[in-house]
Amino acid sequence: MHSGKIAVIGDKDLILAFKAIGMDVFSADSSNEAEKLVKSLAKEYAIIFITEDLAQQIDQLLTKYKTKAYPAIIPIPSSHGTTGYGIEGIKRDVEKAIGTDILFNKED
Question: Percent of the chain, pLDDT > 70?
């Protein structure tokens, strides 16, 4: 059972800000560390924020969790900025849900 707890996985510079507001934070410097953390944290956290750079490296694992109610795994920009991975995932999910790109459809 998930308790509604929130975890943040990312580089040390970013997670300090989340720790300051009371979230549980976990530092990861590689895809292996991030993958192990996600698997472990998924058992007790309802929401897991993970930096886009790490999320992109473990995309196959995160795809498996999309079919489950918990945890919600949400990519966020790292302390170095965004890679576009998070917004691209939202775009794909919206397209899958409704069959068209209503969010980013640009007219030529």
Answer: 70
pLDDT (mean) for 55-61: 92
pLDDT of residue 66: 83
Asked if residue 21 has pLDDT above 50, the reply is yes
Please name the residue ranges forming H helices in the chain: 12-20, 31-41, 52-57, 59-65, 85-98
Phi (first) and psi of residue 80, to 5 degrees: -95, 0
pTM comes to 0.76
How far apart CA 62 and CA 46 sit, in angstroms, is 14
Residue 41 Cα distances to 56, 72, 82, angstroms = 18, 11, 24
CATH class of 6-98: alpha beta
Domain parsing of the chain, residue ranges: 6-98
- AA identity, residue 65: Y
